Amino acid sequence: MAINTPRNLARTAAATSSVTLYTVPAATTAVLTSIWVTNTTASTQTFTIAVNGVAFLAASPLAGNSSVAIDVKQVVAATQTITGFASNTGVIFHLSGMEIV
Predict the structure, then answer these.
(1) 43 exposed, middle or buried (CB, 10 Å; 0-12, 13-18, 19+)?
(2) Displacement of CA 45 from its chain's centroid (Å)
(3) Per the count of CB atoms within 10 A, which of 7, 21, 38, 66 is most buried?
(4) Domains in the chain, start-ordered, CATH in brackets?
(5) Whole-model pTM?
């Protein structure tokens, strides 16, 4: 029987070049369910999030001092990664989901 466990997959300030935000553990499937991105700077910034090397959100603009919530249901297989970066380290990523073992 599969065990579904809710997880905070990533909660971190963005880097300005692509970094791994989350790696699905071996023998596990993950479901990315929500992405929150917060821009803590006064200026518009851009952000990119990719799933297993494929851009999911590419160079998406986010106004200064604002947030966006994205509801998704994206399956991510064992050992695959979710990566991201932004134009400024004042952008914060919050990724939530489920791990299925």
Answers:
(1) exposed
(2) 16
(3) 21
(4) 4-100 (2.60.120.340)
(5) 0.94
The beta strand positions in the chain, using DSSP E, are 4-13, 19-23, 29-39, 45-51, 54-62, 66-76, 81-86, 91-100
Q: Determine the Cα–Cα distance for residues 6 and 96; give it in Å rounded to an integer.
A: 8
- For the chain, the residue count is 101
| Residue 1 clears pLDDT 80, i.e. is over it | no
Identity of the amino acid at 29: T
At 30-82, the pLDDT tens digits run: 999 999 999 999 999 999 999 999 999 999 999 999 999 999 999 999 999 99
First CA to last CA across the chain, in angstroms? 9
